[in-house]
Write a structure and sequence with these properties.
459 residues, 13% strand, 3 domains, 4-stranded antiparallel sheet, 7-stranded mixed sheet, single chain, Aspartate Aminotransferase, domain 1, alpha/beta
Length: 459
């Protein structure tokens, strides 16, 4: 029997749904067509200024019309930020997840077993023990909060769960690290002043000697160092901190060693790139995104924690209505015991489908291709007299400048004309053009076009 919100005419609804699916697949099949980015037209904007509808009506037509007006990350010349390009696989997996409409906060049902499979896969990727725990989250920002909270609570013997943030705790990360680490310190009540930003070397990697000096100074001041975050692929340049050296310092100083690996740690799947992550298997926690270099459709992040008991102890809270039970109420421990969310969408299906449909070899090959493309782009830049390559190319990000023109003006023109979508950043006090290569659809011809257009716009 249909509910009051189910279609009155299922065949008609099915036909409209198929049209929507076809429009979505057409959009992905033809991702390289049209401008990379374009602003939402006024007529469509007006559709989203209407009052809250009291009567129902058609919805799919407007959604289909919106498809060309996204961020642009499905297009092969989207270079601005570290966004994955997505896959049709993820689109279809999300349909299955939507049909199931499951809450993955807990209980004993099918989707929870899919998430457990993914956690086991991730443990294996980073050679963590069977006792390690993990959780699918929205992204690295939330994953970092989970990791920092676990580190803080374990240091306090979990008293901080009742008494709040411990006074005098300090942590460390690179001055090139992502802002999500400082944000985690803020949200958890530690305060951003408790996070020391360690200087970097000429390759924009954390300076281990400076890290040790900061730790020594804090101990001498009566403070309690408890946490250090290394970065595997900085957002500005793709630099990878000396993880093994940081791990050694962390072990000697009894610090929790966290790795912010939003996109870079995905290289663990590549036989040719894996060595760049030397030391990562020594981490206490790793935060990363499936929706970046592994191209799972947004959003899908993950936190992996070596000490599964401490992870659970930092979050578990089981009131009467969530107590362990039988049948559907079984399945202990529940995912809610490892993070802040009881209501959790089903991100597991699209992650599982991505790995199952494509395999790690294809995913690794796409990353290796991007790294090679970064070297190709660097060579194109160096061959052009009007352009200057700025830092060393560490992984898959290339930064450069025009000798005469303003970087922000060039980037804005590229985006407004729909040619390409790089971004800008500031390195050593200088604004530069930043090209991130995490798109499995990008070709060498796209790179050649980008350089030509930058030169043209710089005249």
């Amino acid at each position: 029997m249909a509910g009051p919100l189910d279609p009155e005419d299922w065949p008609a609804f099915r036909a409209e749904a198929h049209k929507m699916l076809d429009a979505a697949l057409d959009r992905l099949q033809n991702a390289a067509d049209g401008p990379v980015w374009q602003p939402l037209p006024e007529d469509l904007k007006q559709r989203f200024t209407a009052p809250l509808p009291r009567k129902g009506g058609a919805a799919f037509e407007t959604l289909a019309a919106m498809l060309p007006y996204g961020v642009g990350n499905t297009h092969p010349r989207f270079f601005g930020w570290v966004h994955g390009a997505g896959t049709p696989t993820g689109l279809v997996a999300d349909i299955a997840a939507g049909a199931m409409n499951a809450n993955l906060g807990g209980r004993d049902h099918g989707a929870v077993y899919v998430e457990k499979q993914i956690t086991a896969w991730v443990r294996g990727m980073f050679d963590f023990p069977e006792t390690a725990s993990g959780l699918i989250v929205s992204g690295t920002s939330l994953a970092t909060i989970v990791a920092v909270k676990t580190a803080r609570d374990r240091r306090s013997g979990f008293a901080s769960r009742k008494t709040g943030a411990g006074q005098g705790l300090v942590g460390y990360t690179s001055e090139q690290a992502h802002g999500c680490i400082a944000r985690a310190f803020d949200i958890l009540g530690l305060g951003t002043d408790a996070l020391r930003l360690i200087p970097v070397d000429d390759s924009f990697r954390m300076d281990p000697a400076a890290l040790q000096s900061a730790i020594d100074a804090d101990r001498a001041a009566g403070l309690t160092p408890f946490f250090v975050a290394g970065t595997a692929g900085t957002v500005n340049t793709g630099a990878i901190d000396p993880l093994d050296t940081i791990a050694t310092i962390a072990a000697r100083e009894t610090l929790w060693f966290h790795v912010d690996g939003a996109f870079g740690v995905s290289a663990i799947l590549s036989d040719t790139l894996r060595h760049r992550l030397n030391g990562i298997t020594r981490a206490d926690s790793i935060a990363f995104d499936f929706h970046k270099w592994l191209h799972v459709n947004y959003d899908a992040g993950f936190v992996l924690i070596r000490d599964g008991e401490s992870h659970r102890a930092a979050f578990t809270l089981r009131p009467d209505y969530l107590k362990q039970g039988r049948a559907l109420a079984a399945g202990n421990p529940w995912p809610v015991e490892y993070g802040p969310e009881l209501s959790r969408g089903n991100r597991a299906f699209k992650i599982w489908a991505q790995f199952t449909a494509h395999g790690t070899e294809a995913l690794a090959s796409a990353m290796e291709r991007n790294v090679a493309q970064a070297q190709t782009l660097a060579a194109l830049v160096e061959a052009e007299p009007s352009l200057t390559l700025v830092p060393p190319v560490s992984l898959n990000i290339v930064c450069f400048s025009h000798r005469r023109a303003n970087a922000e003006d060039i980037v804005a023109a590229l985006q407004q004309q729909g040619i390409a979508a790089p971004s800008t950043t500031v390195l050593d006090g200088r604004t530069v053009i930043r090209v991130n290569l995490t798109n499995h659809r990008t070709t060498e011809a796209d790179l050649e076009l980008l350089v030509r257009e930058v030169v043209r716009l710089g005249v």
